[in-house]
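sry for the spam today, last one i promise. C-alpha cells for design, 317 residues
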C-alpha cells in the first residue's frame, strides 16, 4: 500500500513537470539597435544571435532604427542572420524610425521583415566615410555594382523584391512602410512587437532547403541590452566626436606643458586622449590622419621648448 502511494505521487509529480515544460513557450530575444551600424552594434547583434541559437530561443527580433553605417559591420550582421539556425526578425520601429543605407540591407536579409507605421526604408547607395576617401569614377562604379549585386542577392534569397533592392542602391530611393509591404520588400506592417509575433504565426521560413512554419503565438519577448562597455563605445563611435576628443586632449596636454602645475588641463587632456583612443578602436581609422594628429602633438610640445614665435603652434593646428 505504501509503495503504491509513493508510486502515484512520483507519477503525479513527473506528469506536472512534463506539463510545465510543455506549457512554457520559448523566448524571443529582442535586441534594440537605435544607432549607426558600426563594429560595436555588429558585435552586439552577432553575439546575441549566436547566444540565442545556443539557448534554443524561438527567434531573434531586432528592433532597428538606423541611418546606416559601415559596410564591414553590416556584412558581419548579415552573415549572422543568414547562418542563424533560428529565425531572425528585423522590425523597423518605433514609429518614425528608419532603416536607411546599411539598415535596408540588414532588413532584406532577415527571415521575416516588418515595419511599424510611419517608418521608411531605402537610400542604400554606398558613400565614403570622409572627404579624403572619395573614390574616383571607376572605383565608385565598382563599389556601387558590388553593393547592388549584394542587395539583389539578399532579396532573391529571402523572396523579396530584388528589383527594388537594386534600385535602392543605385538610385537611393526610399519608401514608406505601407509601400514596402505593397512592393513585397517586407512581409508586413505591425503596430507592436506583440502584434508582429501574432501576425507572423504560420509564416514559412527556409532552413537547409526545407520550409518550416513559424509559431508566433504564446511566445515571451526577452529584451537584451548592450553591456556598459558596448554602450560607452557605441556613444563614442561618432568619428567627429572621436577626433574632437583627440584635439581636446592635445590642447589639454599642451596647456599643462606650457603652464606646469595647473594639473586640471593635463588630467582632462589625458582623459580625452584615452577616450579618443577607446573610440578609435571601434572605428575604421585613417592612419595618415592619426600620424598627422601625432605630428600636431609633437609640434605643440616643441613650441614650449623652442622659440618659434608661434609658427610651430600654427603648424600643429
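last one done:
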Amino acid at each position: 500500500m505504501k509503495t503504491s502511494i509513493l508510486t502515484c505521487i512520483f507519477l503525479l509529480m513527473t506528469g506536472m513537470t512534463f506539463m510545465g515544460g510543455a506549457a512554457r513557450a520559448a523566448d524571443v530575444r529582442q535586441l534594440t539597435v537605435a544607432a549607426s551600424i558600426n563594429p560595436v552594434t555588429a558585435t552586439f547583434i552577432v553575439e546575441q544571435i549566436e547566444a540565442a541559437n545556443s539557448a534554443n530561443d524561438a527567434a531573434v527580433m531586432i528592433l532597428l532604427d538606423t541611418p546606416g553605417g559601415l559596410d564591414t559591420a553590416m556584412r558581419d550582421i548579415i552573415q549572422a542572420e543568414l547562418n542563424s539556425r533560428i529565425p531572425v526578425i528585423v522590425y523597423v520601429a518605433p514609429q518614425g524610425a528608419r532603416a536607411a543605407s546599411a539598415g535596408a540591407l540588414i532588413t532584406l536579409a532577415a527571415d521575416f521583415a516588418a515595419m511599424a507605421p510611419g517608418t521608411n526604408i531605402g537610400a542604400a547607395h554606398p558613400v565614403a566615410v570622409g572627404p579624403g576617401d572619395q573614390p574616383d569614377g571607376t572605383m565608385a562604379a565598382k563599389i556601387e555594382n558590388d553593393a547592388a549585386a549584394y542587395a539583389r542577392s539578399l532579396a532573391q534569397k529571402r523572396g523579396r523584391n530584388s528589383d527594388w533592392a537594386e534600385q535602392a542602391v543605385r538610385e537611393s530611393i526610399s519608401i514608406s512602410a505601407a509601400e514596402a509591404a505593397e512592393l513585397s520588400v517586407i512581409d508586413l506592417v505591425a503596430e507592436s512587437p506583440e502584434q508582429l509575433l501574432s501576425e507572423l504565426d504560420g509564416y514559412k521560413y527556409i532552413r537547409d532547403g526545407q520550409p518550416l512554419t513559424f509559431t508566433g503565438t504564446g511566445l515571451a519577448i526577452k529584451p537584451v541590452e548592450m553591456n556598459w562597455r558596448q554602450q560607452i563605445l557605441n556613444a563614442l563611435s561618432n568619428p567627429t566626436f572621436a577626433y574632437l576628443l583627440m584635439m581636446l586632449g592635445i590642447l589639454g596636454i599642451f596647456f599643462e606643458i606650457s603652464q606646469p602645475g595647473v594639473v586640471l588641463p593635463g588630467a582632462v587632456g589625458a582623459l580625452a586622449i584615452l577616450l579618443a583612443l577607446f573610440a578609435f578602436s571601434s572605428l575604421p581609422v585613417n592612419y595618415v590622419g592619426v600620424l598627422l594628429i601625432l605630428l600636431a602633438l609633437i609640434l605643440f610640445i616643441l613650441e614650449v621648448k623652442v622659440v618659434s614665435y608661434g609658427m610651430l603652434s600654427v603648424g600643429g593646428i
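The chain has two domains: 25-229, 236-316. ok im logging off now
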